[in-house]
Specification:
Length: 238
Amino acid sequence: MEPIQGTLVQESPRQLAQRLDLAFTDYLLLSRALTHRSYLNEHPEAIEDNERLEFLGDAVLDFLVGAWLYNRFPEMAEGELTRLRSALVRTEQLAEFSLEIGLDRAMRLGRGEAESGGRQRQALLCATFEAFTGALYLDLGLAAVEKFVEPLLESVTDQILATGKLYDPKSQLQEWTQAHGNGAPVYRTVSARGPDHAKVFEVDVYINGKKYGHGTGQSKQMAAKAAASEAIQALSIE
């Protein structure tokens, strides 16, 4: 294994599969799942980045998490199931799963992305987890994904329910505005600065034309969530 940023050691796809006890047969597929487009830009010999696998993995996770929740909570109403699924597949949670299984050790990043902290960037960790799921599905099938993902879900679901973190900030803010007869929150991107591999976005949120929150993040979605969180605090929403 080659040394990478800090004390972290770069894992090969085969080493990752062995560490996770997954019987991958197509290591080129797994390698693609770990390849960010920044790596592709610097290594023309690499054939494809992981964005198509990310798309597939996102769909697989939505289905599996929904099916798991349906069976795990037979008395839970549809609305609560929907909110709990959203909590389990949101960017922040999938990024935590990615770190939990050590995908950051195996991600193939361009030099600029790696040096700017890409291995800890939530949006990138989430995307890699989704791409990894897509590769696992294509190589080993749905049952293998289910077996791998369910322990991760078990480890956090009770905590999410206990802490009441069923709502992401944007959903919580929108439900409050609807309940109080206000128009839907409007999010406006006010700036996007930095190089492509390390952009920082700033977003404001308005309700009925009045600004209630401002947020920054490594993606527009993360900045919007930060703005919604600030608005929730400003409005004393519980």
